[in-house]
Amino acid sequence: MISDTKLCSYLVFQIQSELTLSGASASRLAFFHQCPGPTQYMVYRLLCDRGWLDNVYVPTNKKLLSESQKTLVTGLNKLGISVLHRSTGIYVWADFRKFLRPQTFEAESDLWRRFIAEKLYIIRGEAFECSEPGWFRLTTALPDDIVQICLEKLKKVLQSEPQLK
């Protein structure tokens, strides 16, 4: 399991595993990608403050993620895109199948390229070995103003192709 935390442009992650092989691999990788000592100390101090974690950081983080996800899902629904329902997290799976003509992974790639051209980085389902084309994974952990901009760009892409209307 990998968990990450973003702290004002610091990205720190932790790998938790009972598998010896993955632990050994992570140790070798850490030699080349070490987290600087001052950053490790800062994270250590934050993680030692259980009161702050339990009463401030975790509740605030959950609230912000929930609000961001709600904004994104509501916007997608307004565009006629359904989303797999799940608890608060940093990603949602959105169903773009109705925008694919034909229903192929090649058509999914074409739609993905149009997203990229509009500077929308939405990961296509084929990258996650989805069994059917048309599913995309979207990040929800963004400020509401950025989510709104992304939704406008998404609307522009989906309305730009006559066969997608």
TrEMBL record:
<keyword id="KW-0663">Pyridoxal phosphate</keyword>
<dbReference type="InterPro" id="IPR015422">
    <property type="entry name" value="PyrdxlP-dep_Trfase_small"/>
</dbReference>
<dbReference type="GO" id="GO:0008483">
    <property type="term" value="F:transaminase activity"/>
</dbReference>
<dbReference type="InterPro" id="IPR015424">
    <property type="entry name" value="PyrdxlP-dep_Trfase"/>
</dbReference>
<dbReference type="GO" id="GO:0030170">
    <property type="term" value="F:pyridoxal phosphate binding"/>
</dbReference>
<dbReference type="InterPro" id="IPR015421">
    <property type="entry name" value="PyrdxlP-dep_Trfase_major"/>
</dbReference>
<dbReference type="Pfam" id="PF00155">
    <property type="entry name" value="Aminotran_1_2"/>
</dbReference>
<protein>
    <recommendedName>
        <fullName>Aminotransferase class I/classII large domain-containing protein</fullName>
    </recommendedName>
</protein>
<dbReference type="InterPro" id="IPR050478">
    <property type="entry name" value="Ethylene_sulfur-biosynth"/>
</dbReference>
<dbReference type="InterPro" id="IPR004839">
    <property type="entry name" value="Aminotransferase_I/II_large"/>
</dbReference>
<dbReference type="GO" id="GO:0006520">
    <property type="term" value="P:amino acid metabolic process"/>
</dbReference>
<feature type="domain" description="Aminotransferase class I/classII large">
    <location>
        <begin position="31"/>
        <end position="153"/>
    </location>
</feature>
